[in-house]
Amino acid sequence: MPLRRTLSSATSVLKAKLGLRYISTTCRAVVLPRFGGPEVLEVRHNVEVPELKPREVLVRACAVSINPLDTRMRSGYGRSIFGPLLPLILGRDISGEVAATGASVRSLSVGQEVFGALHPTAVRGTYADYAVLSEDELAPKPASITHEEASAIPFAALTAWRALKSTAQITGGERLLVLGGGGAVGLSAIQLSVAVGCHVSTTCGKQSIEWVLAAGAKEAIDYTSEDIEAKLKGEFDAVLDTIGAPETERIGINLLKRGGHYMTLQGETASLADRYGLAVGIPMATAILLKKQFEYRYSHGIEYWWTYMRADSEGLEEIARLAGAGKLKIPVDKIFLLSQAREAHEAKDRRLVPGKVVLNVD
Ligand SMILES: NC(=O)c1ccc[n+]([C@@H]2O[C@H](COP(=O)([O-])OP(=O)(O)OC[C@H]3O[C@@H](n4cnc5c(N)ncnc54)[C@H](OP(=O)(O)O)[C@@H]3O)[C@@H](O)[C@H]2O)c1
Which ranges form a coiled coil (predicted)? Predict the structure, then answer.
């Protein structure tokens, strides 16, 4: 046996005897070297595992889920930010096991099962054997759900949490409208609002009606065959628009009470920055948002927001509690292996799988 391999295997044995886990300095990852279709994704076996900063945690991935942001980033969405940083690793969501912790991490320990999500602008994503997240982006995984089920939840649920709890500050007895309740964020929003005692109405496709009602929505309107405005009665305290089309924005705003909150997931910051560059696009987006906020406050007496996912450790703990109690579920439609990331992206792009797709990382 060559000397290097002998030394490395001796080190592994010593680490194992001392109760330490052997962590390689490189690992397998799905890398995006350039923007394009699913065919640009490359499985590489020698990707560096970064050194941990004090508040960071190295997670050995068991499952990672695919979000619309992943397929959009792959196609070039956010190129003004990510273009200069290529090659990058896609993926926000993860469920796995703590492999190592930075010097200041107190709440998590090696060997613990965890789940969580990275911020939308993170460059080293989760489609890898090992991912690095900060301590506040992770929580203990509920023991009652599998890694695949857990990986489907955090990014979507934290986005819904940001809108409903941080922005609209929903409370029991309020009426919420979720435009597009059949997707992962919509289902999370329904379940988080029902958990605090809100009355939820939603729009979704025919195939999602059973799910949204099981999630606790009181009223589900099929947007493909029914007249949403004719069907929805009364006024709402908050509207979460996961679609963000001009038509859904108009409907959502007209259905709000004075003082209510309209929140869309389709903020224009990244697309304007992509079109005009960061220096022009970001101030332009801010100006457009401020103008809309001012106009809708004046014309309808409502608060208008672009919602973006953000880490929230308190939110993630509550999400974990609800998921553990069976009160927050995102159905997983199909599981691929990490090495099949291309096929999984193709399935999402071609709408062959309507619901959540997860990559198993074993
Ligand atoms: N701003 C942020 O930080 C942020 C974070 C997360 C997601 N997002 C964005 O939010 C959107 C939803 O994300 P997701 O993870 O929930 O996606 P998803 O799980 O893929 O769900 C999308 C769902 O939207 C539904 N839909 C499409 N058109 C509709 C319409 N006109 N009316 C009602 N429902 C409609 C479809 O449901 P049916 O099957 O019922 O037709 C589809 O399943 C995506 O565009 C994503 O990029 C933004």
Answer: none
6-47 pLDDT, tens digit each: 333 334 333 433 334 567 799 999 999 999 999 999 999 999
State pTM to two decimals. Answer: 0.93
Per the structure, the complete domain to which residue 189 belongs is given by 156-306
Residue 338 domain-assigned (yes or no)? yes
Check which CATH number belongs to the domain holding 190 and give it: 3.40.50.720
Q: What does DSSP say about strands 199-204 and 219-222: parallel, antiparallel, or unpaired?
A: parallel
Whether 168 and 292 map to the same domain: the answer is yes
Instruction: Find out whether the beta carbon of 186 lies less than 6 Å from any atom of ligand 1.
Output: yes
Question: Could you tell me whether strands 93-101 and 138-140 are parallel, antiparallel, or unpaired per DSSP bridges?
Answer: unpaired
Whether ligand 1 lies within 6 angstroms of the CB of 180 is answered as: yes
Distance (Å) from CA 347 to ligand 1 centroid: 16
> pLDDT digits over 284-328, tens only?
999 999 999 999 999 999 999 999 999 999 999 999 999 999 999
Q: Which atom of ligand 1 is nearest to the CA of 356?
A: 19
Residue 18 three-state SS:
coil
